[in-house]
Amino acid sequence: MADTDVFDEARTRQLAESLGLTRLTPDHLKQLHKAAAVSAARRGALDNAALTPADEPAHVFRLP
Asked: H or E element: which one contains 55?
């Protein structure tokens, strides 16, 4: 989903529904798309080669 910067309403709505967000407006979907893209970019920039599962806080959630 967040692999591309091109907004795809159908794919973003599918992501929203998988998260239980079934009543989002088109503006909300654009915000979700932007948040997912930023999350993926930040996650991709992390050097996680030396991290173990114990290094990740329990309150960290990832989008499907």
From this structure: none
C-alpha to C-alpha distance for 62 and 59, rounded to whole angstroms: 10
Residue length of the chain: 64
Instruction: Give the mean pLDDT of 49-54.
Output: 80
Residues 31, 22: Cα–Cα separation, whole Å = 14
| Start-end of H helices in the chain | 9-18, 26-45
Per residue in 10-46, pLDDT (tens digit) is 999 999 999 999 999 999 999 999 999 998 898 888 8
Contact between residue 64 and residue 3 where contact means Cβ atoms under 8 Å apart = no
Q: Positive or negative CA dihedral for 17, 38, 5, 26? A: positive
